[in-house]
Amino acid sequence: MILIVSVSVFLAAVVGTIGLYWILDSRKESLQQRLREVVGEAGLPGKESAESAGTWLGWIRARFAGRPRAESELLEVLSGKELAGSRLLLNQAGYRSPGAYQTYLTIRWALPFILAVLGLAVGKFFGLDTRAIFLVVLAAGIIGFLLPDFVVRGKIRSRQEEIMDSLPDGLDLLVVCVEAGLGLNGAFVKITEEFRLSSPALSEEFDIVNREMVAGKPRQEALRALADRTGVEDVKSLVAMLIQTEKLGTSLAQSLRVHSDSLRTRRRQRAEEAAAKTTIKLVFPLVFLLFPALFIVILGPGVIQIIKVLMPTIAK
C-alpha cells in the first residue's frame, strides 16, 4: 500500500508538472512569429511551418523534410540575453533544431517515469520487499531526472574542448586571410570551409556568425552571440579583442597575430598542466588495482610455501 501511494504521488507530480509546462509554454510568443512581425512574411518560411516548428509534427518535418540546417539555426539561434537555463545549455551543446528544447524537456520528464517503472518491474521480478522496491524506484527516478542534464553538460564540455584546441589554428588561418586582403566575413567563410572536417564545432560557429552578419545583424552583436553560444573563455577574449579593434580602428591583422600567439601559449600551458596531473591521477589505479595483483603474483608462492612448511609444526 505504501508503494502504491508513493508511486501514485510521484506520477501525479510528474503529470502535473508537464501539464503546467505545456500550458505556460503554449502562451509564449514564438521566435518565428516575432521575426515575421519584424521582417514580414517574405523573409521567413511559410506560416504553417513556422507555427508547427515547436510541435512534434514540426520536429518530425524538420528532421525528415530535408530543410537545410543553417536555415533552422538562423531561426532558432538566439543571443545570450534571450537564452536562459536549459535553452542556453542546449545551444552551447549544439542542439539547435526547432524541436530540440521540447524534445529535451519531454525526455527529462518522461525518463524518470520510465526508469521508475522499470525499477518496479525489476524489484517485483527479483522478489524484493516493499522497502527495497521503494528505494529502487526512488533511485531510478532520480537517475532518470539527472541523466539528461548530465549528458548535455558532457556534450558541452567536449564541444568546448574541441573549440579551445582548434581555435589557435583557426586564428592563424584568419590572420593569413586578413593579411591577404580578405574581409572578416570572407575570412570566416574560409575558416568554415577549412575546418569542416577537422573541427566541425568551430566551423559551425563561424558559419553561423557569417550568416548572421550577411543577414544584416550588426557585427558586434553577432560576435557577442558567438561568445554566448560557445561559453568558451578563449572565444570571449577573441570577441572582446575584435570589438575593441573595430572601435579603436587599430590593425586587425596585428591584433589577431598577437592574440593567436597568446592562445597558442595558453593551449601549451593547458597541455603541460594536464601532463603534470597525470602522475597524481595514476596513484589510485596503481594502489588499488595494480599493486594488489603484483603482491599476489610475487608473494603468493612464498606465502603458500611458508604455510605448507609451518602447518605441520603448528599441528604438533
Structural class: mainly alpha
Spans of 5+ residues with little confidence (pLDDT < 50)? 41-83
Question: What string, H for helix and E for strand, traces the elements in order?
Answer: HHHHHHHHHHHHHH
Label the overall shape.
flat
Number of strands: 0
Ends apart, CA distance between termini: 63 Å
Strand content: under 5%
> Using only CA atoms, what is the Rg?
28 Å
Integer count of domains: 2
Can you offer a commentary on this structure?
The protein is 81% helix and 0% strand. The longest helix has 50 residues, at 130-179. The chain is mostly helical and 316 residues long. The protein has 2 domains: 2-155, no CATH class; 159-277.
Produce a short descriptive summary.
23% of the residues are buried. It is built from 14 helices and no strands. Helices cover 81% and strands 0% of the residues.
Label this structure with key terms:
316 residues, mainly alpha, 2 domains, 81% helix, 0% strand, flat
